[in-house]
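Many introductory courses stop at the sequence. We go one step further.
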Amino acid sequence: MHPNRAFHGQDDEEGLALAERLAFAHIFAVPEGRPMVVHAPIVRASKRAFRFHLARGNRMTQHLDGATVLLSLVGAQGYITPNWYAQPPDQVPTWNYIAVELDGTARLLPDEALIEQLDRLAEVHEPGLSPAPWTRGKMAPAKFEAMHRAIAGFEVEIDSVRVTRKLSQNKPDQDRAGVIAGLIASGNLSLAQAMRVA
């Protein structure tokens, strides 16, 4: 998390909602003193819990049940050149970004909850992608069972939430306008939009 309080999020719910929307996490743990990271889509399971799944063969899977984990998610982000400021000579480059960090404890899911997690993942992300959204009902039960046995699901109960929205809030309006215009011209529309609403 950025040390400047101007860039901090407002409350836990803001961070939890942001994590739910971003939906793809870097999941860090330190089993047996060795830092490890996996990358996985997450879905919100309750007010303060998220679920994800990994291949059973993933080197981190065997270490996660009961482990303290950090979920890190990044939204809009990009390089900011001093040339976009009103007075560029006395400025330095920086990076603007939106990020959320969630700390908690991972627990192995029973089979029924893993299937719920898979169904929820499709329910959240399938709409609008095709006229006939995917559901597991489209699969032969034996095929689904074979694939389902190859993965393990986890739920993380969230203990702490940190949000960083570093969007040039520490700059005057003229500089912010220049950064937004520069981001638009360079094609980084998502970061420009995030700065407009910040």
